[in-house]
Amino acid sequence: MSQTPFVHLHVHSQYSLLDGAIRMKQLINRAKELGMPSIALTDHGVLYGAVEFYQEAEKGGIKPIIGCEAYVAPGSMLDRKSANGGKDAAHHLTLLAADD
Question: Angle at CA 65, nearest 5°, toward 62 and 70?
Answer without folding.
Answer: 150
